[in-house]
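Students often ask why we bother encoding 3D structure as a string. The short answer is that it lets us treat folding as translation between two languages. Here is a chain of 66 residues written in the first language.
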Amino acid sequence: MFKEDTKRFYRNLGMKNLRARNPPSMAEAENYWKSQWGKEADWVRREQERKVRYMGWMPIQITEIT
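And here it is in the second language, the structure alphabet:
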């Protein structure tokens, strides 16, 4: 049924009237996502440093073509 009629599939699951009972405040949501992105940013920086160290990548230098 999912392939043939996705809308009907989800309707039959009873998800149509799903509501959050105690949604977080805007400040709570912002703080949560800021903390998650902060963790990711540290991880991304570490991986970039690791790639440069172990793979010996050189920065790309852009020169003007004439």
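Translate back mentally: The helical segments are 6-12, 26-55. Keep this in mind for the problem set.
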